[in-house]
Amino acid sequence: MDNYYPRLKDLREDNDYSQQFVADYLMMKQPQYSRYERGLRDIPTDVLIRLAKLYHTSTDYILGLTSNTKPYSNTKPYK
Questions:
Q1: What is the pLDDT of residue 69?
Q2: Which terminus of the chain has fewer CB atoms gathered within 10 Å of its CB, N or C?
């Protein structure tokens, strides 16, 4: 799997958000968020989900598992 940390920075910059804005959205301090972008800390699942919602994409896209930026549809319930 490719290193997915640069995608965080790319998504943030593509949306013209500052690290402080994203950190505030995630209810954390900016240095903590910066560690995620630099790959110094793994992203917890709850943070990953909130980032996907912020950027209107899927967690798979952030993790580098797909190149499709569109989020998954919630039209089918899980069985």
A1: 78
A2: C
